[in-house]
């Protein structure tokens, strides 16, 4: 039994050159098919390295995502703290402006008190205010940290100020507490 090629050649339907050309084409296709198969199945070492590389990239992406989340969380916490500080400062300004008693233009006595640890300050007050300060019925507030300006507050607003912004309340004695430091002295 003759193969199809020789039969086609005898019948004169194809020439010898066409047969050679078809054989070459078929050979190229077989080589390409084999090389594709070889590329499709890499060696185990290369597959292991590729897997390690992929895992390392995934770890890097995860670490970068976590760093980004941490930075975002810190930014939001900072904004929240700043917003709360602004709200506390606004509440303190409201308490001082609505309940603050200005120091008298013509003071009768000088009231001495200790501020910020060891600094002794003096303000001019009336005798009634001096007595109320000493008894804890009034307190002294400092509206602006960078100015040596003081305002007197009744006890209730002073306690409210202490709850909202304790740094602004300079002095508030407990009721019944003797003013033994500096408040009762006149210099």
Question: What would your notes on this structure say?
Answer:
The chain folds into 2 domains: 4-40, no CATH class; 48-187, no CATH class. It has 5 helices and 5 strands; from the N terminus they run H-H-H-E-E-H-E-E-H-E. Mean pLDDT is 83; it is low at 180-187. By secondary structure, the protein is of the alpha+beta class. The protein is rod-shaped, with a radius of gyration of 46 Å. Helices cover 58% and strands 14% of the residues. It has helices at residues 4-11, 16-40, 44-99, 127-135, 155-164; strands spanning 109-115, 119-125, 138-141, 151-154, 169-172. The strands form 2 sheets. The protein has a 3-stranded antiparallel beta sheet. Helix 3 runs antiparallel to helix 5. 14% of the residues are buried.
What is this structure's SSE topology?
Blueprint: H1 4-11, H2 16-40, H3 44-99, E1 109-115, E2 119-125, H4 127-135, E3 138-141, E4 151-154, H5 155-164, E5 169-172
Antiparallel strand pairs: 1-2, 3-4, 3-5
Helix pairs in contact: 3-5
